[in-house]
Amino acid sequence: MKITFKLFATLTDYLPPESRYSNVVALELAPGTRIGQVIEQYRLPEKLVHLVLVNGSYIAPEQRASQTLNEGDVLAIWPPIAGG
Question: What is the pLDDT of residue 82?
Fold first, then answer.
């Protein structure tokens, strides 16, 4: 199945070099792949995975390990952001 994977801010460093400028990569995943598996595959540090959305809907931390992705989903992840 195909999904769109987006990383924002400092997390773009974990994308392949050719995708860092656009912050988007198209992924081909096995059916039933879970959000947690994508996070692990890209070696995203747990402390940097703050806001996770699938198709614009918030996914709570306790759901990320078990929630499966579906064909056409958009998985977007942001790190904690501070500023002022």
Answer: 63
